[in-house]
Design a protein that fits this description.
Distance between the termini: 17 Å
Number of strands: 9
Number of helices: 3
CATH architecture of the largest domain: Roll
Radius of gyration: 19 Å
Strand order of the largest sheet: 5-8-9-7-6
Structural class: alpha+beta
Largest sheet: 5 strands, mixed
Number of domains: 2
């Protein structure tokens, strides 16, 4: 049995609020009389966009990071987007601050892939083969320390 060394979920209520407000505003635009002139297909697309915003909010506003005896794992929401790496492959883990240009979400940056939901604190993880990625967290010093102590 593998025991958990570290597990933490960071939440972004602000991002969820922004997505829900955007979805509500999008749907509210259909209530105006002028919206009756919009073809049914376009209105359906608007509704689908609003639903997509709410679903994105439910999936991408929490990031859970865990470290067990063998792996560093992280996932968004309920685990729809999930990644992991062997602890044996990690050669360094350093707390860093992301730039405002790097933003939130999942995307490629100049320092490697970024996975985050809120704030600018992260841990820059470097793998044996030279690949790097950033994990956003509100506990960067704790996560980096756990990863440095890993075998």
């Amino acid at each position: 049995m593998v025991t958990r060394r570290y597990s933490h979920t960071q939440r972004s209520p602000l991002l969820l609020l922004l997505l829900v407000v955007a979805a509500a505003g999008t749907l509210a635009s259909l209530a105006f009389p002028a919206a009756r002139a919009i073809p049914f297909g376009a209105r359906l697309t608007i509704v689908a966009g609003a639903v997509a915003m709410v679903l994105s909010g439910l999936v991408f506003t929490t990031l859970t990071i865990g470290v067990d005896g063998e792996r560093l794992v992280w996932h968004f929401g309920g685990g729809l987007v999930r990644k992991s790496v062997s602890l044996a492959e990690i050669v360094s883990a350093e707390p860093v601050t992301t730039t405002w240009l790097e933003g939130w979400g999942i995307h490629l940056t100049t320092r490697g892939w970024l996975y985050n939901v809120s704030g600018r604190d992260a841990v820059l993880v470097t793998l044996r083969e030279g690949k790097r990625f950033l994990l956003g967290t509100d506990e960067p010093a704790v996560l980096a320390s756990v990863l440095r102590r890993a075998p």
